[in-house]
Design brief:
Blueprint: E1 2-11, E2 14-25, E3 30-34, H1 39-42, H2 44-54, E4 63-69, H3 81-91, E5 103-105, E6 108-109, E7 115-116, H4 121-130, E8 135-139, H5 143-146, E9 153-157, H6 160-167, H7 198-210, E10 214-218, H8 224-228, H9 240-252, E11 268-269, H10 277-281, E12 282-283, E13 288-289, H11 291-294, E14 299-303, H12 310-314, H13 317-322, E15 324-329, E16 332-337, E17 341-346, H14 365-372, H15 377-381, E18 385-389, H16 394-398, H17 407-425, H18 438-444, H19 449-461, H20 466-482, H21 490-498, H22 503-506
Parallel strand pairs: 3-4, 5-8, 8-9, 10-17, 10-18, 11-14, 14-17
Antiparallel strand pairs: 1-2, 2-4, 6-7, 12-13, 15-16
Helix pairs in contact: 2-3, 7-17, 7-20, 19-21, 20-21
């Protein structure tokens, strides 16, 4: 007898429908799983065997073959334990599956028949909705996350015995209510703690308003890392669609939980400078997302930028330009979303004191060149805003005045600028000015005669490229939005040009 059970699988951050075909036939007792299973799927045989017996059922003494279709796509993980078990019980006549054509099963089994949570439940649930599945049976710990897909009845299952009782018409499992986010668990650092550095805070405000990449350069202790870690406090809230995009990535990585099934804040990732290229871009044997994808729709902060391996920094080129990263290995090829704000901090030399008024820099000219040479021109060309962060004077630190401007005030201006951009581009256009393409630049970044004269001179004196020219226009458009201006004025363009890399980085 053959019984077909619907399940779901993962490829990258996308789910797809899987059919578990369970067949019982005469012959020597055996239990085979086919359909390109990995080691974890093959080990399901022992988990299923033990769970069936421990749940009060009889394991069939016959030849059992389970085919996971489509058979040409590699199956990984423990998500197929539950559909295999249900298929075997149905094929052996111990369980009836009438009226379950629109139901799918996902879950890992313990040896005692309890269900354990699995990774990637949200993208699988969303694939179920697209495939016409209307009922989804998942481990209880995964149920809140699965409900985020909408248009789906999600049944939280604790044990095999509970599921069997439900399918037999006994005690019914109530569908899980749709999870609703509550208040954020902890506050984020606030700009009210930052004394001075008005120019840098202005640059970060412009970056947040337009989604631009930032490089801060300054001596140790000037507050670069402190301000970077406060950037999330002025970024706009995630929309529901954006939150689901982020949650899909974190779900695949197993970083969601029953208590926190949804990403409700823009991610802030700060990897150590010893990270590998695979850790940054993604990869490995299972083609996992890297830091550039974990930072999707949020911030990727690279402290001590020149200390990163140049090979790691060069992996940022594609995601910075395209908003996606494509990982190709022998085992396959996947594409992950990776549209983030890159925020970098660095010292101007290895000792950190080049250009400091104290004159305590001990680096030679050759040493400085070698240190800054770790940053390639193409990478710097992809950064929209570069700003020098000067060391604070004693009087600024010891001033008894009140606190600086709070993040809430800065965020109000950022939100107003983002609202202008949303109205300008519409639902199908770019999300912010930093994502404008040639069409939007031509339509929304028109320059008058005075502006054209200014940027023509800057193009030659600053050695701008076509890419950096476009980035200047995007930043100028954001500054105009912050001022509530419909057109780019001379002052907006002049400020945008001030954010190009300083001379010591361009040499």
């Amino acid at each position: 007898m053959v019984c077909n059970i619907l399940s779901l699988g993962l490829y990258g951050v996308s789910g797809y429908l899987v059919e578990a075909e369970c067949a019982l036939s005469n012959g020597l007792p055996a239990f085979d799983v086919v359909g390109l299973p990995d080691a974890a799927v093959k080990e399901a045989r022992e988990r299923v065997r033990s769970a069936i017996r421990d749940s009060g059922f009889t394991f069939p003494v016959s030849r059992i073959t389970v085919n996971l279709a489509p058979a040409d796509r590699k199956k990984a993980g423990t998500v197929y334990d539950l559909p295999i078990l249900v298929g075997i019980l149905a094929a052996s006549g111990q369980l009836s599956l009438r009226d379950l054509e629109d139901a799918a099963f996902v879950g890992e089994l313990s040896l005692s028949g309890k269900l354990r949570p699995v990774s990637g439940i949200l993208p699988m649930a969303m694939a179920a909705v697209r495939s016409g599945v209307r009922r989804l049976f998942v481990p209880a710990d995964n149920a809140p996350e699965a409900t985020l897909a909408g248009e789906l009845e999600v049944y939280p299952v604790e044990t095999v015995a509970q599921l069997a009782d439900h399918l037999r018409g006994g005690a019914q499992i109530p569908p899980a209510p749709v999870w609703q986010p509550g208040e954020p668990a902890s506050p984020v650092p606030d700009f009210r703690d930052v004394k001075g550095q008005e120019q840098t805070k202005r640059a970060l405000e412009v970056a947040a308003a337009g989604g631009h990449h930032v490089l801060m350069s300054g001596s140790p202790g000037s507050g670069k890392s402190m301000m970077a870690r406060r950037l999330p406090s002025i970024l706009p809230d995630l929309t529901r669609a954006e939150a689901l995009e982020c949650t899909e990535i974190y779900s695949v990585l197993g970083l969601t939980s029953r208590e926190h099934p949804m990403v409700t804040r823009r991610p802030f990732r700060s990897p150590h400078h010893t990270i590998s290229p695979a850790g940054m871009a993604g990869g490995g044997s299972s083609l996992q997302p890297g830091e550039v994808s974990k930072a999707h729709l949020g911030t990727l902060f690279l402290d001590e930028l020149p200390e990163f391996d140049p090979a790691v920094l060069e992996t940022l080129r594609q995601p910075l330009e395209d908003g996606v990263v494509q990982i190709t290995r022998v085992s396959g090829s996947v594409t992950y979303p990776s549209r983030f704000m890159l925020v970098c901090a660095m010292n101007p030399c290895r000792c950190g004191w080049y250009g400091h008024p104290s004159g305590r820099c001990t680096c030679s000219e050759q040493s400085i060149r070698r240190y800054l040479g770790r940053l390639s021109g193409p990478l710097l060309d992809r950064i929209d805003i570069c700003v020098d962060v000067p060391a604070l004077e004693y009087d600024e630190l010891a001033a008894p005045g009140g606190q600086a401007e709070p993040s809430s005030a800065i965020r109000a201006r950022v939100n107003a600028a983002r609202a202008i951009q949303t109205a300008r581009f519409g639902p199908d256009g770019p999300r912010c000015n930093a994502q404008m393409g040639p069409k939007e630049l031509k339509e929304y970044c028109q320059l008058d005669e005075d502006c054209q004269k200014l940027i023509r001179g800057a193009y030659e004196s600053l050695g701008l490229t076509a890419r950096s020219y476009d980035r200047v226009l995007r930043v100028a458009r954001t500054i105009a939005d912050l001022d509530g201006e419909a057109d780019i004025r001379l002052s907006h363009l002049a400020e945008a040009l001030q954010y190009r890399p300083p001379a010591y980085l361009r040499r």
